[in-house]
Amino acid sequence: MLEKILEIQNFYVKDQGVEVLKKFCVILHKEEVITIVGQDGSGKNAIIDGLIGNLPASGKLIHIGQILHFNLLDFKKNKIEIVDQKLRLFGNLTVSQNLFLHISFYRKFQFFYHWKDNNEQTKKNPKKFQSEIGSKYKSKESYFRRKKKFSIC
Fold first, then answer.
1. 61 close to 67: Cβ distance less than 8 angstroms
2. Does the domain made of 4-77 have the CATH classification 3.30.420.40?
């Protein structure tokens, strides 16, 4: 049997004081990929928002035997990524680079990571990147609550 990587036990999430998710449990083994699907209002976003600390949550989150807090920074520190259904990808980056793009944001609170070629590409063609990822956000104001909102200057 494959090693347990992530386990969520008795997970409850509240939104504006109302319990929107209760008794959610899941176990993820090494090399497994999960997808959360469901109708509108079924709790998909509540799961993610609770896990990353956007909504009040309770329960246990265990990553390779270690209990984690429900916040995005703990996820990043443990190299856990949540890929949004409206993911914005950079064509000149590998899958791994796209997934872990914003880890460097938290390292020294500088947005741009060390891949020189991508930085140069962005400088050459900023309108292309701005249109793909939204023009109303500046890099210093960026945050990665749901991997939807970031931009490159």
1. yes
2. no
Q: Which residue type does 46 have?
A: A
Q: What is the pLDDT along the chain (153 residues), one digit of tens a residue?
A: 788 998 999 999 999 989 998 999 999 898 887 777 888 888 888 888 898 888 999 999 999 999 999 888 888 888 777 766 555 667 777 766 766 665 444 444 333 333 344 445 445 544 444 433 333 333 333 333 333 333 332
Phi, psi of 89 (to 5 degrees): -110, 150
CB 36 within 8 A of CB 47: yes
**How many Å apart are CA 23 and CA 25, to the nearest integer?**
6
Kindly report whether the global pTM for this prediction surpasses the value 0.70: no
Q: Residue ranges per domain, the chain? A: 4-77, 84-153
SS3 of 21-46: EEEEEEEEECCCCCCCCCCCCCCHHH
The enclosing H or E element of 49 equals helix 44-51
Give which of 81, 83, 82, 53 is closest to 69, Cα–Cα.
53
Beta strands 57-63 and 4-15: pairing type? antiparallel
